[in-house]
Amino acid sequence: MNFSSKKYKKNFDYSYAIGVYATIELLTHQPSRVIKIYIHRKGEKNKGVLKIQSLCKINNIETEIADGLIENLSSSENCYAVGFFKKYQSELSADDNHVVLDSPSDMGNVGTIMRTMLGFGFIDLAIIRPAVDIFDPKVIRASQGALFQIRSQYFDSFTQYKNLFSRNYYPFMLAGRNMNELALKNPYSLIFGNEGAGLSHEYLKIGTPVKIPQSDKIDSLNLSIAVGIVLYENFKPHR
Amino acid sequence: MNFSSKKYKKNFDYSYAIGVYATIELLTHQPSRVIKIYIHRKGEKNKGVLKIQSLCKINNIETEIADGLIENLSSSENCYAVGFFKKYQSELSADDNHVVLDSPSDMGNVGTIMRTMLGFGFIDLAIIRPAVDIFDPKVIRASQGALFQIRSQYFDSFTQYKNLFSRNYYPFMLAGRNMNELALKNPYSLIFGNEGAGLSHEYLKIGTPVKIPQSDKIDSLNLSIAVGIVLYENFKPHR
Fold first, then answer.
1. Contact A214/B180, CB-based, under 8 Å?
2. How would you classify the pairing of strands A210-211 and A124-128?
3. Looking at the predicted complex, does its ipTM rise above 0.90?
4. Which distant-in-sequence residues (6+ apart) come within 8 Å of A105 by Cβ?
5. What is the pTM (predicted TM-score) of this model?
6. Contact A213 B237 (CB under 8 A)
7. What is the pLDDT of residues A192-219, one digit of tens each?
8. In whole angstroms, what is the distance from residue B151 CA to residue B176 CA?
9. Could you say which of B149, B215, B238 has the minimum Cβ distance to residue A118?
Protein backbone atom coordinates (compact mmCIF):
# COMPACT_ATOMS: atom_id res chain seq x y z
CA MET A 1 0.00 0.00 0.00
CA ASN A 2 1.30 3.43 -0.87
CA PHE A 3 0.39 6.68 0.84
CA SER A 4 0.38 10.10 -0.68
CA SER A 5 1.66 13.15 1.15
CA LYS A 6 -1.89 14.41 1.57
CA LYS A 7 -2.31 16.03 4.96
CA TYR A 8 -4.37 14.13 7.51
CA LYS A 9 -8.13 14.59 7.62
CA LYS A 10 -10.47 13.45 10.35
CA ASN A 11 -12.40 11.09 8.06
CA PHE A 12 -9.29 9.06 7.11
CA ASP A 13 -9.24 5.56 8.57
CA TYR A 14 -5.49 5.91 9.08
CA SER A 15 -3.15 8.49 10.54
CA TYR A 16 0.61 8.90 10.93
CA ALA A 17 3.23 9.56 13.57
CA ILE A 18 5.84 12.12 12.53
CA GLY A 19 9.45 11.79 13.64
CA VAL A 20 11.76 9.05 14.83
CA TYR A 21 10.77 9.11 18.51
CA ALA A 22 7.00 8.90 17.92
CA THR A 23 7.48 6.24 15.23
CA ILE A 24 9.46 4.07 17.68
CA GLU A 25 6.67 4.50 20.24
CA LEU A 26 4.13 3.42 17.61
CA LEU A 27 6.15 0.34 16.61
CA THR A 28 6.83 -0.60 20.24
CA HIS A 29 3.34 -0.25 21.65
CA GLN A 30 0.96 -0.70 18.68
CA PRO A 31 2.88 -2.85 16.18
CA SER A 32 -0.29 -4.59 14.97
CA ARG A 33 -1.77 -1.24 13.85
CA VAL A 34 1.20 -0.21 11.71
CA ILE A 35 0.70 -0.21 7.94
CA LYS A 36 3.97 1.16 6.62
CA ILE A 37 7.00 3.20 7.68
CA TYR A 38 8.62 5.83 5.48
CA ILE A 39 12.22 6.83 6.04
CA HIS A 40 14.21 9.86 4.84
CA ARG A 41 17.49 9.20 3.06
CA LYS A 42 19.23 11.74 5.33
CA GLY A 43 18.41 9.57 8.36
CA GLU A 44 19.64 6.21 7.09
CA LYS A 45 22.50 6.12 9.58
CA ASN A 46 20.57 7.66 12.46
CA LYS A 47 20.47 5.40 15.55
CA GLY A 48 16.72 5.81 15.96
CA VAL A 49 16.14 4.93 12.32
CA LEU A 50 18.23 1.77 12.75
CA LYS A 51 16.01 0.86 15.68
CA ILE A 52 12.92 1.52 13.53
CA GLN A 53 14.30 -0.76 10.81
CA SER A 54 14.98 -3.52 13.29
CA LEU A 55 11.47 -3.20 14.80
CA CYS A 56 9.98 -3.34 11.31
CA LYS A 57 11.95 -6.48 10.49
CA ILE A 58 10.80 -8.23 13.68
CA ASN A 59 7.16 -7.28 13.01
CA ASN A 60 7.31 -7.86 9.27
CA ILE A 61 6.40 -4.25 8.45
CA GLU A 62 7.17 -2.64 5.09
CA THR A 63 9.57 0.34 4.97
CA GLU A 64 10.32 2.66 2.07
CA ILE A 65 12.63 5.60 1.41
CA ALA A 66 10.42 8.62 0.59
CA ASP A 67 12.12 11.98 1.13
CA GLY A 68 9.41 14.05 -0.59
CA LEU A 69 6.53 12.53 1.33
CA ILE A 70 8.27 13.11 4.66
CA GLU A 71 9.20 16.69 3.81
CA ASN A 72 5.61 17.42 2.84
CA LEU A 73 4.10 15.97 6.00
CA SER A 74 6.63 17.36 8.45
CA SER A 75 7.32 21.00 9.14
CA SER A 76 10.72 20.16 10.60
CA GLU A 77 13.82 19.94 8.43
CA ASN A 78 15.26 17.01 10.29
CA CYS A 79 12.40 14.57 10.23
CA TYR A 80 13.70 11.11 9.39
CA ALA A 81 10.64 8.90 9.72
CA VAL A 82 6.87 8.84 9.40
CA GLY A 83 4.83 5.85 10.56
CA PHE A 84 1.40 5.20 9.04
CA PHE A 85 -1.09 3.20 11.10
CA LYS A 86 -4.71 2.18 11.06
CA LYS A 87 -6.79 4.11 13.58
CA TYR A 88 -8.16 2.00 16.41
CA GLN A 89 -10.53 2.11 19.35
CA SER A 90 -9.72 1.39 22.97
CA GLU A 91 -11.93 0.59 25.93
CA LEU A 92 -11.26 2.06 29.31
CA SER A 93 -10.48 -0.16 32.28
CA ALA A 94 -13.27 -0.31 34.86
CA ASP A 95 -10.78 -0.83 37.71
CA ASP A 96 -8.25 1.90 37.02
CA ASN A 97 -8.52 5.61 37.71
CA HIS A 98 -9.50 7.80 34.76
CA VAL A 99 -8.84 11.26 33.44
CA VAL A 100 -11.99 12.74 31.86
CA LEU A 101 -11.75 15.73 29.51
CA ASP A 102 -15.06 17.41 28.73
CA SER A 103 -14.95 19.14 25.31
CA PRO A 104 -11.19 19.68 24.95
CA SER A 105 -10.52 21.86 21.90
CA ASP A 106 -6.75 22.32 21.81
CA MET A 107 -4.77 19.52 20.18
CA GLY A 108 -1.52 20.50 21.85
CA ASN A 109 -3.18 20.36 25.27
CA VAL A 110 -4.64 16.89 24.68
CA GLY A 111 -1.30 15.50 23.48
CA THR A 112 0.57 17.07 26.40
CA ILE A 113 -2.01 15.64 28.81
CA MET A 114 -1.47 12.13 27.40
CA ARG A 115 2.29 12.43 27.90
CA THR A 116 1.75 13.72 31.43
CA MET A 117 -0.71 10.92 32.24
CA LEU A 118 1.88 8.34 31.29
CA GLY A 119 4.46 10.17 33.40
CA PHE A 120 2.26 9.81 36.46
CA GLY A 121 0.91 6.30 35.88
CA PHE A 122 -2.52 7.11 34.41
CA ILE A 123 -3.50 5.11 31.30
CA ASP A 124 -7.24 5.74 30.83
CA LEU A 125 -8.56 8.88 29.13
CA ALA A 126 -12.29 9.50 28.60
CA ILE A 127 -13.18 12.30 26.19
CA ILE A 128 -16.63 13.89 26.14
CA ARG A 129 -17.66 15.27 22.73
CA PRO A 130 -17.45 17.78 21.08
CA ALA A 131 -13.70 17.31 21.17
CA VAL A 132 -10.51 17.25 19.14
CA ASP A 133 -9.64 14.16 17.12
CA ILE A 134 -6.97 12.32 19.14
CA PHE A 135 -5.51 10.75 15.99
CA ASP A 136 -4.67 14.10 14.46
CA PRO A 137 -0.88 14.12 13.90
CA LYS A 138 -0.70 17.33 15.99
CA VAL A 139 -2.03 15.46 19.02
CA ILE A 140 0.37 12.57 18.41
CA ARG A 141 3.27 15.00 18.13
CA ALA A 142 2.37 16.87 21.33
CA SER A 143 2.03 13.52 23.12
CA GLN A 144 5.50 12.55 21.85
CA GLY A 145 4.00 9.18 20.99
CA ALA A 146 2.51 8.66 24.48
CA LEU A 147 -0.83 8.28 22.66
CA PHE A 148 0.18 4.74 21.75
CA GLN A 149 0.25 3.70 25.41
CA ILE A 150 -2.96 5.48 26.40
CA ARG A 151 -6.44 3.96 26.31
CA SER A 152 -8.82 6.66 25.05
CA GLN A 153 -12.52 6.40 24.54
CA TYR A 154 -15.02 8.99 23.29
CA PHE A 155 -18.46 9.57 24.81
CA ASP A 156 -21.33 11.69 23.53
CA SER A 157 -22.12 13.05 26.97
CA PHE A 158 -20.98 12.78 30.56
CA THR A 159 -24.18 10.87 31.29
CA GLN A 160 -23.19 8.20 28.79
CA TYR A 161 -19.80 7.89 30.49
CA LYS A 162 -21.35 7.84 33.95
CA ASN A 163 -23.74 5.04 33.03
CA LEU A 164 -20.79 2.87 32.06
CA PHE A 165 -18.38 3.77 34.85
CA SER A 166 -19.78 4.03 38.33
CA ARG A 167 -17.09 5.36 40.68
CA ASN A 168 -15.97 8.48 42.60
CA TYR A 169 -16.11 11.61 40.46
CA TYR A 170 -13.90 14.61 41.17
CA PRO A 171 -14.76 17.54 38.90
CA PHE A 172 -12.08 20.26 38.97
CA MET A 173 -13.71 23.65 39.26
CA LEU A 174 -12.91 27.06 40.65
CA ALA A 175 -14.94 26.23 43.75
CA GLY A 176 -14.71 23.14 45.95
CA ARG A 177 -12.35 21.45 48.38
CA ASN A 178 -8.64 22.16 48.08
CA MET A 179 -7.17 19.22 46.22
CA ASN A 180 -4.29 18.72 48.60
CA GLU A 181 -6.61 18.43 51.59
CA LEU A 182 -8.56 15.57 50.07
CA ALA A 183 -7.74 11.86 49.96
CA LEU A 184 -9.23 10.49 46.73
CA LYS A 185 -10.99 7.14 46.89
CA ASN A 186 -10.28 4.47 44.24
CA PRO A 187 -11.49 3.95 41.63
CA TYR A 188 -11.97 7.57 40.67
CA SER A 189 -12.32 9.91 37.72
CA LEU A 190 -10.62 13.31 37.58
CA ILE A 191 -12.80 15.55 35.41
CA PHE A 192 -11.62 18.70 33.62
CA GLY A 193 -13.51 21.18 31.46
CA ASN A 194 -12.84 22.96 28.22
CA GLU A 195 -9.87 25.39 27.89
CA GLY A 196 -12.10 28.44 27.72
CA ALA A 197 -15.26 27.63 29.58
CA GLY A 198 -14.22 25.11 32.25
CA LEU A 199 -16.86 22.72 33.58
CA SER A 200 -20.53 23.73 33.66
CA HIS A 201 -22.26 24.31 37.01
CA GLU A 202 -24.04 20.97 36.63
CA TYR A 203 -20.83 19.26 37.67
CA LEU A 204 -21.20 20.77 41.15
CA LYS A 205 -23.81 18.08 41.78
CA ILE A 206 -21.66 15.28 40.40
CA GLY A 207 -19.29 13.83 42.96
CA THR A 208 -16.95 16.06 44.97
CA PRO A 209 -15.88 19.36 43.36
CA VAL A 210 -12.20 20.05 43.88
CA LYS A 211 -9.99 23.04 43.23
CA ILE A 212 -6.27 23.66 42.87
CA PRO A 213 -5.21 26.32 45.37
CA GLN A 214 -3.96 29.37 43.44
CA SER A 215 -3.60 33.13 43.73
CA ASP A 216 -6.38 35.47 42.65
CA LYS A 217 -4.08 37.15 40.11
CA ILE A 218 -5.16 34.87 37.28
CA ASP A 219 -8.57 33.62 36.14
CA SER A 220 -7.54 30.00 35.89
CA LEU A 221 -4.59 27.82 35.03
CA ASN A 222 -3.94 26.48 31.54
CA LEU A 223 -5.79 23.16 31.17
CA SER A 224 -2.73 20.96 30.65
CA ILE A 225 -0.97 22.62 33.61
CA ALA A 226 -4.00 21.98 35.84
CA VAL A 227 -4.15 18.32 34.81
CA GLY A 228 -0.38 17.97 35.30
CA ILE A 229 -0.57 19.30 38.86
CA VAL A 230 -3.49 17.04 39.79
CA LEU A 231 -1.86 13.90 38.36
CA TYR A 232 1.42 14.75 40.08
CA GLU A 233 -0.36 15.21 43.39
CA ASN A 234 -1.85 11.74 43.03
CA PHE A 235 1.38 10.05 41.97
CA LYS A 236 4.16 11.39 44.13
CA PRO A 237 5.18 9.51 47.22
CA HIS A 238 3.48 11.41 50.03
CA ARG A 239 5.52 12.63 52.97
CA MET B 1 1.16 57.94 16.13
CA ASN B 2 -0.29 55.42 13.71
CA PHE B 3 0.67 51.78 13.41
CA SER B 4 0.51 49.64 10.35
CA SER B 5 -0.72 46.06 10.41
CA LYS B 6 2.84 44.81 9.85
CA LYS B 7 3.45 41.68 11.89
CA TYR B 8 5.74 42.03 14.90
CA LYS B 9 9.48 41.66 14.47
CA LYS B 10 12.04 41.24 17.22
CA ASN B 11 13.85 44.49 16.36
CA PHE B 12 10.74 46.67 16.81
CA ASP B 13 10.87 48.91 19.88
CA TYR B 14 7.16 48.27 20.40
CA SER B 15 4.88 45.26 20.47
CA TYR B 16 1.16 44.64 20.88
CA ALA B 17 -1.30 42.66 22.96
CA ILE B 18 -4.03 40.95 20.95
CA GLY B 19 -7.53 40.59 22.31
CA VAL B 20 -9.69 42.27 24.92
CA TYR B 21 -8.44 40.34 27.94
CA ALA B 22 -4.72 40.89 27.28
CA THR B 23 -5.33 44.55 26.42
CA ILE B 24 -7.08 45.10 29.76
CA GLU B 25 -4.13 43.45 31.52
CA LEU B 26 -1.77 45.79 29.66
CA LEU B 27 -3.79 48.90 30.55
CA THR B 28 -4.18 47.83 34.17
CA HIS B 29 -0.59 46.87 34.94
CA GLN B 30 1.56 48.84 32.48
CA PRO B 31 -0.46 51.95 31.59
CA SER B 32 2.63 54.11 31.24
CA ARG B 33 3.96 51.85 28.43
CA VAL B 34 0.82 52.01 26.30
CA ILE B 35 1.05 53.98 23.05
CA LYS B 36 -2.34 53.42 21.44
CA ILE B 37 -5.33 51.08 21.51
CA TYR B 38 -7.17 49.93 18.39
CA ILE B 39 -10.74 48.74 18.60
CA HIS B 40 -12.88 46.73 16.17
CA ARG B 41 -16.25 48.14 15.21
CA LYS B 42 -17.87 44.76 15.97
CA GLY B 43 -16.80 45.07 19.60
CA GLU B 44 -18.05 48.56 20.36
CA LYS B 45 -20.73 47.27 22.72
CA ASN B 46 -18.62 44.51 24.25
CA LYS B 47 -18.25 44.85 28.04
CA GLY B 48 -14.49 44.37 27.92
CA VAL B 49 -14.16 47.02 25.22
CA LEU B 50 -16.14 49.45 27.37
CA LYS B 51 -13.70 48.76 30.19
CA ILE B 52 -10.79 49.38 27.80
CA GLN B 53 -12.30 52.70 26.75
CA SER B 54 -12.75 53.75 30.35
CA LEU B 55 -9.14 52.78 31.23
CA CYS B 56 -7.90 54.73 28.20
CA LYS B 57 -9.85 57.79 29.27
CA ILE B 58 -8.43 57.66 32.81
CA ASN B 59 -4.89 57.26 31.49
CA ASN B 60 -5.28 59.71 28.61
CA ILE B 61 -4.51 57.06 25.98
CA GLU B 62 -5.57 57.41 22.35
CA THR B 63 -8.02 54.89 20.87
CA GLU B 64 -9.04 54.37 17.26
CA ILE B 65 -11.44 52.17 15.33
CA ALA B 66 -9.37 50.05 12.91
CA ASP B 67 -11.09 46.89 11.75
CA GLY B 68 -8.58 46.04 9.02
CA LEU B 69 -5.52 46.42 11.24
CA ILE B 70 -7.04 44.16 13.89
CA GLU B 71 -8.11 41.52 11.39
CA ASN B 72 -4.61 41.47 9.94
CA LEU B 73 -2.83 41.10 13.26
CA SER B 74 -5.20 38.58 14.82
CA SER B 75 -5.94 35.10 13.56
CA SER B 76 -9.20 35.01 15.50
CA GLU B 77 -12.45 36.25 13.98
CA ASN B 78 -13.69 37.75 17.20
CA CYS B 79 -10.78 39.93 18.19
CA TYR B 80 -12.07 43.30 19.35
CA ALA B 81 -8.94 45.09 20.56
CA VAL B 82 -5.19 45.36 20.04
CA GLY B 83 -3.01 47.36 22.43
CA PHE B 84 0.31 48.77 21.24
CA PHE B 85 2.97 49.45 23.84
CA LYS B 86 6.61 50.41 24.09
CA LYS B 87 8.84 47.51 25.07
CA TYR B 88 10.45 47.87 28.48
CA GLN B 89 13.01 46.30 30.74
CA SER B 90 12.49 45.02 34.27
CA GLU B 91 14.90 44.21 37.04
CA LEU B 92 14.46 41.19 39.22
CA SER B 93 13.94 41.53 42.93
CA ALA B 94 16.92 40.37 45.02
CA ASP B 95 14.65 39.30 47.89
CA ASP B 96 12.02 37.27 46.08
CA ASN B 97 12.25 33.75 44.72
CA HIS B 98 12.97 33.43 41.00
CA VAL B 99 12.15 31.13 38.14
CA VAL B 100 15.14 30.75 35.79
CA LEU B 101 14.65 29.41 32.26
CA ASP B 102 17.87 28.43 30.49
CA SER B 103 17.46 28.73 26.70
CA PRO B 104 13.68 28.38 26.37
CA SER B 105 12.75 28.08 22.69
CA ASP B 106 8.98 27.67 22.66
CA MET B 107 6.94 30.86 22.86
CA GLY B 108 3.80 29.09 24.03
CA ASN B 109 5.70 27.47 26.89
CA VAL B 110 7.20 30.77 28.08
CA GLY B 111 3.80 32.50 28.01
CA THR B 112 2.11 29.62 29.83
CA ILE B 113 4.89 29.65 32.43
CA MET B 114 4.33 33.38 33.07
CA ARG B 115 0.62 32.79 33.64
CA THR B 116 1.37 29.85 35.95
CA MET B 117 3.95 31.90 37.90
CA LEU B 118 1.34 34.53 38.62
CA GLY B 119 -1.11 31.83 39.66
CA PHE B 120 1.33 30.60 42.29
CA GLY B 121 2.71 33.91 43.50
CA PHE B 122 6.00 34.08 41.58
CA ILE B 123 6.81 37.41 39.89
CA ASP B 124 10.47 37.18 38.89
CA LEU B 125 11.59 35.40 35.73
CA ALA B 126 15.26 35.21 34.67
CA ILE B 127 15.90 34.09 31.10
CA ILE B 128 19.31 32.83 29.98
CA ARG B 129 20.05 33.43 26.30
CA PRO B 130 19.67 32.14 23.60
CA ALA B 131 15.96 32.41 24.20
CA VAL B 132 12.65 33.45 22.74
CA ASP B 133 11.68 37.12 22.67
CA ILE B 134 9.23 37.61 25.54
CA PHE B 135 7.58 40.54 23.78
CA ASP B 136 6.55 38.46 20.81
CA PRO B 137 2.73 38.66 20.60
CA LYS B 138 2.64 34.83 20.73
CA VAL B 139 4.21 34.88 24.18
CA ILE B 140 1.85 37.63 25.35
CA ARG B 141 -1.12 35.65 24.06
CA ALA B 142 -0.04 32.39 25.73
CA SER B 143 0.51 34.34 28.97
CA GLN B 144 -3.02 35.77 28.65
CA GLY B 145 -1.52 39.12 29.56
CA ALA B 146 0.23 37.78 32.68
CA LEU B 147 3.44 39.11 31.09
CA PHE B 148 2.44 42.61 32.21
CA GLN B 149 2.65 41.59 35.87
CA ILE B 150 5.89 39.61 35.57
CA ARG B 151 9.38 41.04 36.03
CA SER B 152 11.61 39.41 33.38
CA GLN B 153 15.28 39.98 32.81
CA TYR B 154 17.62 38.45 30.20
CA PHE B 155 21.15 37.24 30.94
CA ASP B 156 23.87 36.15 28.54
CA SER B 157 24.88 33.22 30.72
CA PHE B 158 24.00 31.57 34.00
CA THR B 159 27.29 32.88 35.39
CA GLN B 160 26.18 36.44 34.71
CA TYR B 161 22.93 35.76 36.55
CA LYS B 162 24.73 34.03 39.42
CA ASN B 163 27.10 36.95 39.91
CA LEU B 164 24.14 39.26 40.43
CA PHE B 165 21.92 36.99 42.51
CA SER B 166 23.56 34.99 45.25
CA ARG B 167 21.02 32.59 46.75
CA ASN B 168 19.98 28.92 46.86
CA TYR B 169 19.89 27.36 43.40
CA TYR B 170 17.68 24.38 42.61
CA PRO B 171 18.32 23.06 39.09
CA PHE B 172 15.59 20.65 37.95
CA MET B 173 17.15 17.62 36.34
CA LEU B 174 16.37 13.96 35.80
CA ALA B 175 18.65 13.10 38.73
CA GLY B 176 18.65 14.61 42.21
CA ARG B 177 16.52 14.74 45.34
CA ASN B 178 12.78 14.23 45.01
CA MET B 179 11.25 17.69 45.04
CA ASN B 180 8.56 16.82 47.56
CA GLU B 181 11.11 15.57 50.09
CA LEU B 182 13.00 18.83 50.10
CA ALA B 183 12.26 22.05 52.00
CA LEU B 184 13.51 24.91 49.83
CA LYS B 185 15.38 27.73 51.56
CA ASN B 186 14.52 31.37 50.73
CA PRO B 187 15.55 33.20 48.70
CA TYR B 188 15.87 30.60 45.97
CA SER B 189 15.96 30.13 42.23
CA LEU B 190 14.17 27.28 40.47
CA ILE B 191 16.14 26.52 37.31
CA PHE B 192 14.75 24.74 34.24
CA GLY B 193 16.44 23.77 30.97
CA ASN B 194 15.50 23.91 27.34
CA GLU B 195 12.46 21.97 26.03
CA GLY B 196 14.59 19.47 24.13
CA ALA B 197 17.91 19.25 25.90
CA GLY B 198 17.12 20.01 29.55
CA LEU B 199 19.90 21.41 31.73
CA SER B 200 23.55 20.57 31.02
CA HIS B 201 25.49 18.37 33.43
CA GLU B 202 27.32 21.46 34.72
CA TYR B 203 24.23 22.33 36.72
CA LEU B 204 24.81 19.23 38.87
CA LYS B 205 27.54 21.25 40.62
CA ILE B 206 25.34 24.33 41.05
CA GLY B 207 23.19 24.21 44.15
CA THR B 208 20.97 21.22 44.88
CA PRO B 209 19.72 19.22 41.89
CA VAL B 210 16.07 18.29 42.24
CA LYS B 211 13.76 16.02 40.30
CA ILE B 212 10.02 15.61 39.96
CA PRO B 213 9.08 12.02 40.80
CA GLN B 214 7.65 10.37 37.68
CA SER B 215 7.23 7.00 36.01
CA ASP B 216 9.88 5.61 33.67
CA LYS B 217 7.37 5.45 30.81
CA ILE B 218 8.28 8.89 29.48
CA ASP B 219 11.61 10.62 28.91
CA SER B 220 10.63 13.83 30.63
CA LEU B 221 7.67 16.08 31.25
CA ASN B 222 6.78 19.00 29.02
CA LEU B 223 8.68 22.08 30.27
CA SER B 224 5.64 24.15 31.21
CA ILE B 225 4.06 21.17 33.01
CA ALA B 226 7.26 20.63 35.00
CA VAL B 227 7.42 24.30 36.01
CA GLY B 228 3.71 24.26 36.89
CA ILE B 229 4.13 21.29 39.23
CA VAL B 230 7.15 22.79 40.97
CA LEU B 231 5.49 26.19 41.49
CA TYR B 232 2.32 24.52 42.77
CA GLU B 233 4.35 22.43 45.22
CA ASN B 234 5.88 25.62 46.61
CA PHE B 235 2.62 27.55 46.80
CA LYS B 236 -0.02 25.23 48.16
CA PRO B 237 -0.77 25.17 51.84
CA HIS B 238 1.07 22.11 53.11
CA ARG B 239 -0.85 19.50 55.04
1. no
2. unpaired
3. yes
4. A130, A131, A132, A194, A195, A196
5. 0.95
6. yes
7. 999 989 999 999 999 999 999 999 999 9
8. 29
9. B215
